Amino acid sequence: MRLWGTMRGTMKLTWRRLSVHTKYPFRIARPGSSVDGNDVHRIIVEIERDGIVGRGEAAPSSFYGQSLETVEATLAQAGPLLGDDPFQIGPIVDRLLYRFNDHRAAVAAIDEALHDWVGQKLEVPVWRLLGLDAAAVPPTSMTVGIDNLDLIAQKTREASAFEIIKVKVGTADDEAILSTVREHAPHQVLRVDANCGWSADQARDRIEAIRRFNLELIEQPIASGQYDALQRLTEAVDVPVITDEDSATPDDVLKLAGRVDGVNVKLSKCGGIRQGFDMIRLARAHGLKVMVGCMVETSIGVSAIAQLAPLADFADLDGHLLLADDPFTGPVLRGATVYPPDAPGLGIGSA
Question: How many whole angstroms from its chain centre is CA 318?
Fold first, then answer.
């Protein structure tokens, strides 16, 4: 744990590493981003002032050049930029992004902790602070990662309470995987997420081969940065295309406008609740659909993105549900929908 106290001693920033474990190994098509075994390593950030502690979570991704070490290095330098007023979330985040634009997982954790602190101070949940209606949250999908077909069948059966299942694809076995899922989930809505797993040349044929499974949408079919190829693919298929790896920041939304059907917003990629809100407003202004998503995170990170879920068309808020030992509580699962809690701030408690 490290500690930063401002010169006036009024706001303290601390952090610690946390290891949790998934119920099953969690694999996706893109190299370097699957969970290593069942171990998930995150950094929990706390901002304390006036006896109130706000919390946030950093879920770094090697795909964006982030690690536990880069998060800690960023946090170690962030203290002098915080000032002494937690209410100044906008200026604080702007200063942090100006200095640490490539380390948005760390910035996101600070942003979340500030929102949590302010909500607790004012005794209102963050979604209400943002002027949103928690009842407007769309149902979440439950993710089935890449695995052998027996485990895929088992995980699909365990997801029977959810009306939407998101299936990780991007392998040579996609049709067998989806056949297995559909066998055990004949009535659920299916989404697929290729995580950059198909080449631009093969993606259209791959989508045509699996469209018989009645897909609601497909996430990130090809490697990121291929905007022209992504646009051609979107125009050629009748399954809506939503980006994920391509839509990390608000600036990315502008590059994708008119090229795809929608974008996925994740806080550890974009830099927190404030940046996520900006992404959603930009997406709406450019006619794009919005998904709100998460990494494999504890209830802290999922509760943070759930605050913005009332603004979304699609929700993928199952990161904490994939864990065997989430040490926190917060998001409220009712039926097949993950709602932000009614408690002040992010509504985080101990499990």
Answer: 9
